[in-house]
Structures are given as C-alpha cells and as structure tokens.
Design goal:
This protein is mostly helical and 93 residues long. Helices cover 73% and strands 4% of the residues.
Length: 93
C-alpha cells in the first residue's frame, strides 16, 4: 500500500482533480436541471419553487446523512459511486 503522502500526491494531481471536477460539474448540472424542471418559470425568467419542494429540500438539508431515510442515503451513495472509478484509476496507475 502506498503511504498517505503518496496517495495525497496522486489524488491532488491536476489531471485527477480535473477528471473529478468534470464529474462534479456533471452531477451539479443534472441536479440543477432537475430543480429547474420542478419549478414554475415566471415571465421575467425567475423560477418559483413549489412550497412543498422547498420544505422537503430544507428538511433534507437540515438532516444529517445518518438520519436520512434509506432511499435518500442510497441516492447519495449512487453519486459517490460516480467518483470511485476515477479515484481507483488514479490510485492504481
């Protein structure tokens, strides 16, 4: 196994950071599209979030991961799994 310093060096490599940043942007863009699709676009271009969604999302924000329902934790795990191939690749090359 590599030392912590070697692992840090590999994971902080600019190529690895760029690959992970691309995944993060894709994840963020997907979420933002979902949010926009749930909203009502106003004539001036602003988006109106339905009250029930705003309340649900606020509850999710305020809930620690360990206290989330299993379905929501699995959704978070799915997002993490998107990063793992890049991390594994970086650590095994």
């Amino acid at each position: 196994m590599s030392s912590p310093d070697e692992i840090r060096e590999v994971l902080e490599d600019e190529q690895t950071v760029e690959r992970l940043a691309a995944i993060e942007h894709e994840r963020w863009a997907h979420w933002q599209q979902f949010v926009h699709d749930q909203c009502e676009r106003q004539e001036d271009g602003t988006l109106l979030v339905p009250a029930e969604l705003a309340a649900r999302w606020q509850t999710q924000i305020e809930t620690p991961y360990a206290e989330l329902p299993e379905q929501e934790r699995e959704s978070d795990r799915e997002q993490v799994r998107r990063y793992l191939p890049t991390i594994i690749d970086a650590l095994t090359r």
